[in-house]
Amino acid sequence: MIEERSARRVSVNLHGRIAVAGHPTIPCVVHDMSRWGVRLRLVGTERVPAEFQLMIDATEKVISCETVWKNADEIGALTDLME
Fold first, then answer.
1. Rounded to an integer, what distance in angstroms lies between the CA atom of residue 20 and that of residue 14?
2. Which of 11, 17, 45, 78 is least crowded, fewest Cβ atoms below 10 Å from its Cβ?
3. DSSP code at position 36
C-alpha cells in the first residue's frame, strides 16, 4: 500500500468529545493526529455531521473538524491544527 499522506501521523489514543451545536457531546477516542487531521473511534458515526468541534479531554483545545471519511466505528477528519 502506498502512503499518500503529506504529514506523518502520531498515535495518541486520547479521550475526547465531539460537539455539534444543539446536541449532547459524543464521546470518542482520538487514535492518531497529524498536522492536517485526526482519526477518531466512536460508536455511531452516523450521528456526526460533515463539520464538528473536537474537544480533547486532556487539554482545553477545541479543534474544528471536517469529516473526510467514515465507516461504522471510525471517522477521518481534516482539522484547523495548522491555523
1. 19
2. 11
3. S
Distance CA 62, CA 15 (A): 13
DSSP 43-79: S-GGG--SEEEEEETTSS-EEEEEEEEE-SSEEEEEE
What would the grid cell of residue 7 be? 504529514
pLDDT at 1 over 70: no
Q: How far apart are CA 53 and CA 65, in angstroms?
A: 6
Chain centroid to CA 41: how far? 8
Is residue 82 very low, low, confident or very high in pLDDT (cuts 50, 70, 90)?
low
Predicted structure pTM score: 0.84
Q: Between residues 16 and 9, which one has the greater pLDDT?
A: 16
